Amino acid sequence: MLDGMETLEQRLERVREKLSRLDRPKIFGASSHGCVLGPPLAEAQVATFEREHGITLPGAYRGFLTTIGHGGPGQFGGAGPFYGLTPLHHWDRILMEETKKPLSQPFPTVPGADYGKGEDWFERAGVDEDGEWYPGAIALADQGCGDMVALVVTGPARGRVAYLFWGRAPMFTADADFLAWYERWLDAALSGAEHWY
């Protein structure tokens, strides 16, 4: 422990323990993935992904991938919010363009900024409406109806989770990082909640 703060290892262990207690939760999307994760990725696999894309994954997400699990049996992924956690190899499910921009480009928005209510957010965020809307982020989960969840991997909002809605600026969660977001979902699922956001 540093300065009274939990270590990443302690947080990962707590998440692993909570995940092991999930048994047929009622929460939305659980039936699509059965609350099962695929096995963790090897360090070499994650390092290869990072090297190929010129990035370093945020520590909380990277630790989750290499120690707890990755993807899963569902059509969209494994145990996680909405329709499940997207496997790392499907990181590009949030991209709008066939020509993929590198993950090394900064994500265009930051938490707390006002980008407007409608499609004018593109201009305010400096995004080419006809280009790629979400560089610098990977897909985390499919919310359904074309809405996605992303993890920002490059830029000032690196490490933060954002909800992506068609025609609106990304909305950042209040969670400090991926693990806080994931654990909040676990807590809701364990409490018997049927819906979560």
Automatic annotation (TrEMBL):
InterPro entries per the UniProt record, alphabetical: Knr4/Smi1-like_dom (IPR018958), Knr4/Smi1-like_sf (IPR037883)
Residues annotated as domain Knr4/Smi1-like: 40-184
Superkingdom, taxonomy of origin: Bacteria
Name under which the protein is recorded: Knr4/Smi1-like domain-containing protein
Source organism per UniProt: Actinoplanes cyaneus
